[in-house]
């Protein structure tokens, strides 16, 4: 057996929605070691799956073969102007310090930064903003270790026919070992967070998205209120007005984590208290404005475990869907303690991007990890499908290759690339078999 392998152990993801027991675990520190591990798997009839931070809520990283922990393959490999090549195991939260010496930043970010670069781009991680795509759209080149042990560089000029697939590859095409990201000059964000009326925000959804660089809001079930977040991009030399240390602790740590955790436990044990607690939450949180470096505004600490389903839908149908979800919550007597997150993204040409070919709205449903999300998620998933929805690849859903083929115009093109690069399914698992076919 390869000296790089250790006996496997039980594994579970962050949200505790998936678990696995790989036969072997490996923690490579170089591309050469990854090549050796892939060769061992191929020669011994094993599958191999990279795993990063475990922040996907699906089983996309689960395996009974070799679990390849890429966390030690990290850091900045090269900088060429605003093009930064990052080792695949680099966590997003490491990037601000790494990019600061070059005066650079990611063009956009989601509100969680625990993921690795490889995991984030491979599952379609995104932020919000009508003119901004997900992380995969910022990728200008990737390097893969392929099933035959080769090292394959893919970009708009090298193996360009593979580029629309490789930027968001679900881990199905090979082991992603580095990615070149097009960054932007470091910038500030002016943030306004405020409670607003549900109907006013939903009725003005498209206008708000068009008028602001980054707009999102959270719908609080059992109330008529939402928490809106408006972020405006500013030059890095503009004055900063960050939240005070106490304000950061109060809003981001105490209210958004400790109080939220207590609220969710209370709602689980005494469900009837949830509507009143939700109404209270809309009155005591999320009313502030500040200006800070981009990552300090984009990212929020998320320490309370949850599970999530997120769907991408045509931008213009978001209001209809939100109203239908509210009617379903009331009609079914569901008690929902977690807010519903609503965001937007620009259309792109990445084959398996949830925003492929259309301006996109995102609607994300959450449940506390100790609660059963099945009925809530599956009922609303049917609504999303009726509107042409596409599930986030790293979040819970029940879709199969048959229905996903209808949702993605280039689905079969992606599958053809998979057949070409991994005909024996060395990088396969049950999740990929379900969503891409055998």
Key traits:
single chain; 5-stranded antiparallel beta sheet; Vanillyl-alcohol Oxidase, Chain A, domain 3; 21 strands; alpha+beta; 14 helices; 2 domains; 438 residues; Uridine Diphospho-n-acetylenolpyruvylglucosamine Reductase, domain 3
Largest sheet: 8 strands, antiparallel
Protein structure class: alpha+beta
State the CATH superfamily name of the largest domain: FAD-linked oxidases, C-terminal domain
Distance between the termini: 28 Å
Low-confidence stretches: none
Specify the helix fraction band: 25-40%
- Helical stretch tally: 14
Indicate the radius of gyration in whole angstroms. 21 Å
Sum up the overall morphology in one term: globular
Could you say what the CATH topology of the largest domain is called? Vanillyl-alcohol Oxidase, Chain A, domain 3
Strand content: 25-35%
- What is the count of distinct domains? 2
Looking at the overall shape, the CATH architecture of the largest domain is 3-Layer(aba) Sandwich
Strands, count: 21
Mean pLDDT: 94
Strand order in the sheet with the most strands? 17-14-16-15-19-20-18-21
CATH class of the largest domain: Alpha Beta
